[in-house]
Amino acid sequence: VMLSQQVPLVSAPIDYRASLVYENCAATSIMIVICFCFCWPNGFVALFVAMSFIGSFVILGRISDKANTAVDTVDTSAELAVEIFEQAK
User: Fold this and answer.
1) Domain residues for 34?
2) pTM of the predicted model, to two decimals?
3) What does each of the 89 residues of the chain score in pLDDT, given as a tens digit?
4) Integer Cα distance of 3 and 50 in angstroms
């Protein structure tokens, strides 16, 4: 069973995870602003840590995307399923 065929079952967890990402990004931004207000050296440290996390997530996302693309090009299960279905007719 492919995930693309079960959109309602897949969309709810993805929406929930996306909302968690948005909420955490907003909370991090607010905390960095608060750090700058109370102690500006700590604000720069928090900004550096947040930027390094974001940079590492971007790099890891690109690596993961390349790996998934490589697997998708190798995966021939859809063509095989169509061929089996046509042979069964």
Assistant:
1) 3-88
2) 0.55
3) 565 666 666 677 777 888 888 999 899 999 999 999 999 999 999 999 999 999 999 999 999 888 888 776 676 777 777 788 788 87
4) 33
